[in-house]
Design goal:
14 strands, single chain, alpha/beta, six-stranded parallel sheet
């Protein structure tokens, strides 16, 4: 089936820290020139949507607001729809995405990558709420991500700790949740078979996309580690970087 949409991870695919990955800008320009619909689907939860868009602009990556999908925006929609008051275990940089929500007497727990702002007191408060029946909303469950000085713990280990302690299952709002891939494609009236996901996380990006019916390409940049190919689900592809992945799409025929 003809390719119509390309879903793209950001960190580790287009840049690492504050450094663009070689060929990233040219790859994006080639995708723009192809006429394919683009959506940038990230599990990053240390920056607000507005701050992330500014950072992308500074790096020379032009991304429109409606092209960027984040788990924080999905979480906000769920909280408002269900009338939930969240305890936010998040990074301060993400707080603007939850402005205006009622945080008094929380009856739900939202966990993102809070980094150094995780504390025993906060996690214990979350544990007690979960034991009392509050839902656990996870902005992601990635195990780690790539920083300039090496790999760092992501939100996943903290989500797993709360699940284990409280005996509950988190509702995942970021990749690899099938609903996130569906939400990216729905406004474009695009079927999963007409879309591909390119990312550096074998589980969240590529296997998640494959499970949702999309194609998936794993790039050997960012958090990629040697041997990740062996964990690819059937049908997954591998490319050295974003430029190579885009070349593999055969855009002249798209």
């Amino acid at each position: 089936m003809k390719l119509r949409t390309v879903l793209l991870d950001l960190g580790g695919v287009f840049y690492e820290g504050t450094r663009l990955i070689p060929g990233a800008q040219d790859a994006l320009a080639r995708l723009r020139g192809s006429g394919l619909a683009l959506r940038f689907v990230t599990n990053t939860t240390r920056q607000s949507r507005a701050a992330l868009l500014q950072e992308l602009s500074r790096l020379g990556l032009a991304v429109a607001t409606d092209e960027l999908l984040t788990p924080a925006s999905a979480a906000r929609a769920v909280l408002l729809e269900r009338g939930l008051r969240p305890l936010l275990l998040i990074h301060p940089g993400l707080a603007p995405d939850f402005d205006g929500l009622d945080l008094h007497q929380p009856n739900a727990v939202v966990v993102g990558d809070a980094g150094d702002h995780f504390s025993y007191a906060g996690l214990n408060q979350a544990f007690r709420l979960l034991q009392a029946g509050a839902p656990l909303l996870a902005l992601g469950r990635n195990r780690y991500f790539k920083e300039t000085d090496g790999l760092s713990l992501d939100a996943g280990p903290f989500v797993a700790a709360l699940e284990y302690a409280a005996g509950v299952d988190a509702e995942l709002l970021g990749k690899p949740a099938p609903a996130l891939f569906a939400a990216a494609l729905r406004p474009l009236a695009c079927s999963p078979e007409q879309a591909v996901m390119i990312g550096d996380d074998v589980e969240a990006d590529v296997n998640g996309a494959l499970a949702a019916g999309l194609r998936g390409i794993l790039v050997r940049t960012g958090k990629y580690r040697p041997g990740d190919e062996t964990r690819l689900a059937a049908g997954g592809d591998v490319a050295d970087d974003i430029a190579t992945a885009v070349a593999q799409l055969g855009l002249d025929a798209a």
